[in-house]
Design goal:
The chain is about 15% helix and about 25% strand. It has ten helices and 25 strands. With about 575 residues, the protein is α+β, with helices and mostly antiparallel strands. The chain starts with about 20 loop residues before the first strand and ends with a helix. A hairpin with a 2-residue loop joins strand 7 and strand 8. The protein folds into three domains: about 100 residues, Immunoglobulin-like; about 290 residues, Purple Acid Phosphatase, chain A, domain 2; about 80 residues, no CATH class.
């Protein structure tokens, strides 16, 4: 196969030195123009919640989907103790009522804040509901939120991890700028059906009032856009573990078969033609109090996380074994469900990353990643490292069996995205760029945007000013396996855009079908045969070499690297069949 030199250099700079050249990409990416240039902090949000006694009025209202996004919503907020607490809601008036359950929150002073959760059930699909939270006689403002449609149609989702809020009263705070506000403003401007928080949300780090400030600041977005979350390591707070997260957010997530203390910390739900699965990589039971910021995640060596060891705790064992069982059951059922076209998984700790701050989770690659391979999971979203990274399509099984991450690259497989650029700070990358890395940047803050329909799962990394820093799509092979495609190459040859089987930036599979390109080996994993393309691809490039799609994207088919695409590139591609 034709080879190509690649741009491998990315360095971390200060915020004052950010530039668009901070993106390393193997494929030919085009930077989009700013969609909403210069968008600033969310002026509609309050300046902050008063500290001290809990509020008699509902504070920080937020909403999530219940078990079925088409018919149920869960509403949460905090405040002081109330004799009665409820949500009043309806499609026009507020004539329906849902009573709230309560959880008293741990605090670092004499106040006794309470987390409230109310479930709205029996709703109509694709319908806008107006609602407000009420404590005794005190009500929040009235918000509007929409249930998921029954089926059909395209939809949009945004996601980001490692978000935070600048809190000068918190000595353990992480963000100290308005970037978290700008990131939420960007998510809100993209108008998603719902938003995914991929862990490390408020960075309260043991200061409960930071949670109040977080939800108060972002109330307008989280009360009108369903907010589904998974915990990160900063949700496990010293001495109190996940109590704050459980009461404020986990109570709102869809039900699962988990048992205390893990119920709802992993879950799944279907929205349209996509299955979304949230998992948990944060443990509570191996945290020295001397460590101020956080408890230790399950993948940290200090937890002695060893699948062959009898010394690991029941909590740790549950976190990988129970979730693996849940994953196997959920994904196998989805494989038999014709209404599910896409499988999207999200959890905090990444399986594939090249930032030294948090290493790849090798144990979880084996425990969970091999299931992603087996069931053709399309996309996995992570946070944890404060960078943006996108992998080539990779196989955990192949990487594990070969002992080489580079050998994990496959023509069709799962794509992994790390986006921990919610606004806290940026991390560095290791020296050099791994073969399996397709795009990476540590220069921006922004959200991952998913646009989903029956044919494509389109993905963009949209930063604060609206610029599109990364853009690609996921399509399916004739056998239903996920492949990455470049939206700019749609229309080169028929309905299927070309693919890049070996992730070198050149699109040898011109017909986009990987014909002659997938074979089952004795070891049981998929590898390219004839390098993922055949003579039909050569003929197709020859026939279409003068087309607008090819001429507009010469770098995708410039196999001899002379700066243009012509018959010599066709010859080069043909010779590659016998190399």
């Amino acid at each position: 196969m034709a080879s190509t030199s690649r741009w491998r250099m990315v360095t971390h700079r200060s915020d004052d030195e950010r530039g668009m050249d901070g993106v390393r990409r193997r494929s030919a990416l085009k930077l989009g123009a700013a969609g909403i240039a210069g968008i600033g902090p969310l002026s509609a949000y309050s300046a902050g919640v008063a500290r001290g006694a809990p509020s008699a009025t509902p504070v920080g209202v937020h909403v999530a989907y219940g078990d079925d996004p088409t018919t149920s919503l869960n509403v949460g907020w905090t405040g002081g103790t109330a004799d009665t607490a409820r949500v009043e809601y309806g499609t026009s008036g507020l004539d329906e009522t849902a009573m709230a359950s309560t959880r008293t929150l741990p605090t670092d002073d004499e106040s006794q804040p309470v987390a409230y959760t109310a479930s709205l059930t029996g709703l109509e699909p694709g319908t806008t509901y107006r609602y407000r939270a009420v404590m005794d006689g005190e009500a929040s403002k009235t918000f509007a939120v929409e249930t998921a449609p029954e089926a059909g149609g395209s939809f949009r989702v945004t996601a980001v991890g490692d978000h935070g809020i600048a809190d000068p009263d918190n000595p353990g705070q992480r963000p100290d700028t308005d970037d978290p506000e700008k990131v939420v403003a960007r998510a809100q401007a993209q108008d998603p059906a719902f938003h995914i928080g991929v862990g490390d949300l408020s960075y309260s780090n043991g200061k409960p009032s930071t949670w109040e400030l977080y939800f108060d600041t972002f109330e307008e977005f989280y009360a009108t856009t369903p907010f589904v979350t998974v915990p990160g390591n900063h949700e496990a707070e010293v001495f109190t573990g996940l109590q704050q997260y459980d009461a404020r957010l986990n109570q709102l997530m869809p039900e699962t078969t988990g048992t205390p203390p893990n119920e709802k910390r992993w879950y799944d739900f279907q929205y349209g033609n996509a299955l979304f699965i949230g998992l948990n990589t944060t443990s509570e039971d191996c945290a020295p109090p001397s460590r101020f910021e956080e408890q230790v995640p399950i993948y940290d060596p200090r937890c002695n996380f060893d699948t062959a060891s009898d010394s690991i705790s029941d909590q740790q064992r549950a976190l990988y074994e129970t979730q693996r069982e849940f994953l196997e059951k959920t994904l196998s059922e989805a494989a038999e469900d014709d209404s599910i076209e896409w499988n999207i998984v999200y959890f905090h700790g990444p399986l594939w990353t090249d930032s030294p701050d948090h290493a790849p989770r090798q144990v979880l690659r084996e425990e969970w990643g091999t299931l992603f391979d087996k069931y053709d999971v399309d996309l996995v979203l992570h946070g944890d490292n404060h960078v943006y990274e996108r992998t080539c399509t990779v196989s955990n099984k192949r990487a594990l069996e070969s002992g080489s991450d580079a050998e994990g690259i496959v023509p069709a497989g799962t794509t992994y995205i790390v986006n921990g650029t919610g606004g806290v700070n940026h991390y560095a990358f290791n020296e050099g760029v791994p073969e399996w890395t397709d795009v990476r940047s540590n220069e921006f803050f922004g959200v991952t945007q998913l646009d989903i329909d029956d044919e494509r799962l389109r993905v963009r990394y949209v930063v604060e000013d609206g610029s599109v820093i990364d853009e690609f799509a996921i399509a399916k092979t004739p056998d239903g396996e996920p492949v990455q495609v470049d939206p700019a190459l749609e229309g080169v040859a028929g309905d299927r855009p070309p693919t890049d089987p070996d992730c070198d930036g050149l699109y040898e599979d011109v017909t986009g079908d990987l014909s002659g390109g997938l074979a089952e080996t004795d070891e049981g994993f998929v590898k390219p045969d004839a390098e993922g393309y055949d003579v039909v691809d050569v003929q197709t490039l020859f026939a279409n070499r003068e087309s607008d799609a090819v001429r507009s994207n010469p770098e995708a088919f410039d196999f001899n690297r002379d700066g243009r695409t012509d018959v010599v590139d066709v010859q080069k591609l043909f010779r590659g069949l016998s190399d």
